[in-house]
Write a structure and sequence with these properties.
Length: about 140
C-alpha cells in the first residue's frame, strides 16, 4: 500500500503562517491512500493567524483551505465524497454556516455529517471541517 502525505508549502497564501500547526502538532494536512485523499480537520483561522468573529468568515476560510489542499492534489471541491463538520453553539451558528456552505459547495454534494461540540482547539473557533475526496483514477 502506497501512502503519500500532502504538505502545504510554507508561505502558501491561503494558509499563511498557520502551516506551522502541522509540525507543531505532528500531523499532515492530508494523506493519500487507496485512491482517496483524507483531509485533516481545517479551521477558520486567517492566514495571519487571527480568528474571525463570525461563523460565516470562519466557515469560508475552512472551506477555502480544503479547496486549496484539493488544488495541490489536482482536485477541486467536486471531488469531495464525505465531510464531517464540528460546530460550537451549533443551533446559533448553523444558519450562517449553511449559508456559506451553499454559496461555496455545489452539486454533486458529498455526504456531510454535522456534529455539535462544546469547544475546539482554540478559544473563538466555531467550526472545524474534515473531509475525504476521491481521485478520478483509483490506481493513483
Amino acid at each position: 500500500m502506497t501512502i503519500h502525505t500532502v504538505d502545504v508549502p510554507e508561505g502558501n497564501p491561503v494558509f499563511g503562517r498557520t502551516t506551522s500547526a502541522f509540525a507543531d502538532f505532528g500531523y499532515s494536512a492530508a494523506v493519500r491512500a487507496h485512491g482517496l485523499l483524507f483531509i485533516a480537520g481545517t479551521i477558520g483561522r486567517r492566514a495571519d493567524g487571527t480568528i474571525p468573529d463570525t461563523i460565516e468568515e470562519q466557515s469560508e476560510i475552512a472551506i477555502r483551505k480544503i479547496e486549496e489542499i484539493l488544488r495541490l492534489e489536482g482536485l477541486d471541491l467536486s471531488s469531495l465524497v464525505d465531510v464531517t463538520s464540528y460546530h460550537v453553539d451549533i443551533h446559533q451558528h448553523l444558519p450562517g454556516f449553511g449559508e456559506t456552505k451553499r454559496r461555496l459547495v455545489a452539486a454533486p454534494y458529498p455526504t456531510w455529517t454535522i456534529i455539535g461540540v462544546g469547544g475546539l482547539a482554540s478559544p473563538g473557533l466555531l467550526v472545524e471541517i474534515r473531509a475525504i475526496a476521491a481521485y478520478p483514477d483509483v490506481s493513483r
